[in-house]
Amino acid sequence: MTWLPNTLTSIRLVLVPVFLWLITRQTLAGSVLALVTFVVASVTDSLDGYYARKYESQTDLGRFLDPLADKLLVLSAFYWGALDGSPDGGWFNIWLVHLIALREVVITVLRTVHRRTGRQIVTAWAGKWKAVAQMTVLSTVLTFEAGARVIDALGGGAGWLLSAPIWFLVQFLFGIAVVLTVVSGVRYFTVDYRTIPLGGGEDPDG
């Protein structure tokens, strides 16, 4: 079963363009299936790390593909939400999405540089909570999108999606994700910046 972690990571990579294609259809089936695809891809993120540790099958390929798949999934969802999502053209501020992307790219490059020296970045608490906050706001928005189309198809109307409570809830969750993204990025260059040898028993930052 040593092949399983990298297989799960590869599945997540394949699901990224599938997710984007589905969510940009702006149809009932597309929104519902995009939500399902996003959830499945997110679950593989937890499973590949679990099985890599269980079967002691952490490889250089896996260490490279796993964060790459994570970033592509998360950033594709954020950019869709900023550019194409409801209401009125976007759930998220595009400049804040750019900020999130900058942090993810910098840390990913930093991880790659350290990997070439046989070391990896240690996951800090801020990095873990950042990942949780990002997945929470994205899952919430995708659920609202799918739910609105289902209710509309049943004749209930989707006007609630544009209501102030929904909007403020999403912005609140997005704000938490942005703050934790910035905090985790800053801490890597200050308080929590440290590395350990590859295979040292801790996962790299997400």
User: For the record, what CATH class applies?
Assistant: Mainly Alpha
**Shape type:** globular
What oligomeric state do the depicted chains represent? single chain
Low-confidence stretches: none
* Helix/strand/pairing category: mainly alpha
> What's the end-to-end separation, in Å?
24 Å
Helix coverage percent: over 70%
Named at the architecture level, the CATH assignment is Up-down Bundle
The tally of helices reads 6
Main sheet: which strands, in order across? 1-2
Main sheet makeup: 2 strands, antiparallel
Per CATH, what is the topology? Answer: Four Helix Bundle (Hemerythrin (Met), subunit A)
DSSP, total strands: 2
Order of helices and strands: HHHHEHHE
> What count of structural domains?
1
What can you see in these coordinates?
The protein is mainly alpha-helical and 206 residues long. It has one domain (4-197): Four Helix Bundle (Hemerythrin (Met), subunit A) (Up-down Bundle), CATH 1.20.120. Helices cover 71% and strands 3% of the residues. The protein contains 6 helices and 2 strands; from the N terminus they run ααααβααβ. It has helices spanning 4-23, 28-54, 60-83, 94-115, 125-153, 164-188; strands at residues 119-121, 195-197. The chain has a two-stranded antiparallel sheet. Helix 2 (28-54) runs antiparallel to helix 5. The radius of gyration is 18 Å and the shape is globular.
